[in-house]
Amino acid sequence: MARVLRPRDAEVLRLRGRSASVLLSGDDTGGQMTVRVVEVDPEPRDAEPRPLHVHEGVGEFMWILEGTGLLHCDQGVLPAHQGEVVYIPPGEMHKIMPSGEESLHLLCVFPTGDIAARTRE
User: Fold this and answer.
1) Which of 10, 48, 58, 102 has the fewest CB atoms lying closer than 10 Å?
2) 94: how many CB neighbours lie within 10 A of its CB?
3) CATH for 74
4) Residue 98: CA atoms inside 13 Å, Cβ hemisphere, count?
5) Three-class secondary structure assignment of 41-56
6) Rounded CA gap, 69 and 79, in Å?
7) Residue 94: beta bridge partners?
8) Tens digit of each residue's pLDDT (9 = 90 or more) over 22-72
C-alpha cells in the first residue's frame, strides 16, 4: 500500500552520538527494508570517539540531506557533502561524522527489515 511517510510521525531511536527516526522497518516492508532519517551530532571535545560499526550481510545507502561530513571507512577518511550519496558495502566498518560544528542529516536505507539485528559496534 502506497503512503506518505512523515519523519515527525516516526519512532525515534536514541543511539550513541546520533538519533534515528525510523520511517520504514520490517513490519512495514515485509522484512525487506529499513529506512531512517539520521541526525549525527558533533562529538564533544572531551568525549571518547564513537567507534566504527558494521552491518553484517547488508549494505547501507546514505544520502546526505544537510551538512558536511567525514566518512571513516576501510579506505581511510573521505569527505562527504550535502547532496552526495554514500554507499557502504556489506561487512565494511564505518561511521560518518560532521566535519564542523553543525549536525549532519542523512537518509539511510538498508536492504533488511531489522538492521539492528545485523549491526555490531
Assistant:
1) 48
2) 19
3) 2.60.120.10
4) 18
5) CCCCCCCCCCCCEEEC
6) 6
7) 53
8) 999 988 888 899 999 999 999 988 989 999 999 999 999 999 999 999 999
Q: Which of 33, 49, 37, 32 is nearest to 13 (CA)?
A: 37
- Closest residue by Cα to residue 79 from 104, 60, 58, 56: 104
Q: 21: closest CA among 3, 31, 34?
A: 34
**Which domain covers residue 69, as residue numbers?**
7-115
User: Alpha carbon 81 to chain centroid distance?
Assistant: 15
Q: Is residue 39 part of a domain?
A: yes
CB 50 within 8 A of CB 93: no
